[in-house]
Specification:
With about 260 residues, the chain is mainly α. About 80% of the residues lie in helices and about 0% in strands. The chain contains ten helices and no strands. Helix 3 (about 60-90) runs parallel beside helix 6 (about 140-165), helix 5 packs across helix 6 and helix 9 packs antiparallel against helix 10 (about 225-255). The longest helix has about 30 residues, at about 60-90.
């Protein structure tokens, strides 16, 4: 128990370090995270809503809203743990410096997960607030739950980013990961259109943690909570986090201790 407390205490130093660096360019750092969903809502949501019939009783803008919260969590976590982690590891030698202190590889990786969880939760809260003000969140209590879902969704997405950081040989190769992995799960996971009547795609997206986060957020924002379905999606997020996180830890341990 004491060792676990010590591990979390050391990992929290990683979170504090990342926050100190992050807040130096706070506005620049949060701009893409908040601006992209806002622009999508304006261009697609507001722009196309008058031309698209309601989906499940919701306007197209209301349909897009929960997906924008999920998108914020996805991009926040993936880019932080892919590009961000790679830069800290390769160009800034931040982790080499940390490993000369009582902080070990376990604490470094745990700290990265904690940092992403906190950051994605705050970003999800910000986006949910904006959508609530715009009248696109039918369930006002979602403001309490969406940040937590955003945080848990960020964990498997962060693990994918860490796996990418472990595999790539140079920073340009992240573009391949984005083009052939992140972009497809982003565009095909029920954010922009429902998957009803598409059995093949509905089956394929079950292996995407992003899809399970999107469904959790949709049921929360639309006040369509179903216990067993939500439990299944939440369990999927935890399962993907453990599997991807395990392999990321194994690969990064070798890389950080060379």
């Amino acid at each position: 128990m004491n060792n676990l407390i010590i591990t979390f205490g050391l990992a929290w130093h990683v979170v504090v370090r990342n926050w100190i660096v992050y807040r130096k360019d706070f506005l620049a750092n949060i701009s893409p995270t908040l601006a992209d969903p806002a622009l999508i809502m304006i261009s697609l949501g507001m722009g196309l809503s008058p031309f698209i019939q309601e989906i499940g009783g919701y306007s197209y803008a209301q349909y897009l809203a929960p997906g924008m919260i999920a998108t914020t969590a996805l991009f926040t976590s993936f880019f932080e743990c892919s590009y961000g982690f790679y830069v800290r590891m390769t160009y800034e030698s931040v982790f080499k410096a940390m490993l000369t202190t009582p902080i070990g590889v376990n604490e470094v990786i745990l700290g990265e997960f904690l940092w992403v969880f906190v950051r994605a939760s705050i970003m999800a809260l910000g986006v949910t607030l904006v959508l609530l003000v715009m009248g696109l969140v039918p369930n006002p209590w979602a403001i309490l739950v969406c940040p937590l879902i955003g945080g848990f969704l960020s964990l498997p997405c962060a693990a994918i980013g860490l796996l990418a950081a472990a595999f790539v040989r140079n920073i340009n190769q992240f573009q391949t990961v984005y083009s052939f992995l992140i972009a497809p799960i982003y565009f095909l996971s029920a954010v922009f259109f429902p998957l009803d009547g598409r059995p093949i795609l509905s089956t394929i997206v079950q292996i995407s943690p992003f899809y399970h986060g999107v469904r959790l957020l949709q049921s929360t924002v639309w006040n369509e909570f179903r216990f067993l379905e939500s439990l299944m999606h939440f369990a999927a997020l935890i399962g993907f986090t453990l599997i991807f996180g395990f392999f990321a830890f194994r690969l990064l341990t070798r890389k950080l201790t060379v």
